[in-house]
Amino acid sequence: MKRIFLFAFVGLVALASCNQSAPEKTIANLKDGIKGETTASAKYSAFAQKAREEGYDTIAKLFDAASKAEMIHATNHTKVLTDLGVAMEAFNPEFEVKTTAENLQAAITGETYEIDSMYPRFLDDAKAEKVEKATKSFTWAMDTEKKHQSFYAASLEALNGAGEKTLPFEYFVCPVCGNTYDKATLEPKCGFCQTDQEKFIAI
């Protein structure tokens, strides 16, 4: 009797697993997030090169740091997607490089979209579909983009006014979540994931 009950229980669990739908919205959002963050990483690396060509080494440092952070976000999103049993399709990042002032404005526009629209929607879907790892990865990315947006805005203001000397020249990136600091705002542990400062990537 116990054996029959056990078989019946296992069968019900298997049936429930089969009927449980995949988190389709979150899967699609993870793929979009991977594309966006990978493209941003490549774009900011190109923006850094352009800034150096124009003599803006300090702004180039910021773009280098942001490029590293965006790749960490892409890697985190990819890990979540893989855990869901889904593979990411190959794609080629597409972007345009203009002057450093225009590139900073493009970066601000991109970060603003992610902060105000993209990641809030992704988070709503991940919470509704109960994908906790996606919620964490999206939150880390969105909170970092807020800092990047602020850094870019300050850089554009300096470029149009007081000059680069007013900007930080050293940045640090958390290797776990991508959180980005300048030297003046460093913390003993990452404010997002609690990783020790000693593990931060210096840019």
From TrEMBL:
Domain of life: Bacteria
GO MF annotations in UniProt: metal ion binding; oxidoreductase activity
Signal as UniProt keyword: yes
Pfam family, one: Rubrerythrin
Keywords: Signal
Coiled-coil intervals: none
SUPFAM superfamilies the UniProt entry points to: Ferritin-like (SSF47240), Rubredoxin-like (SSF57802)
Protein name per Swiss-Prot or TrEMBL: Rubrerythrin
Species this chain originates from: Williamwhitmania taraxaci
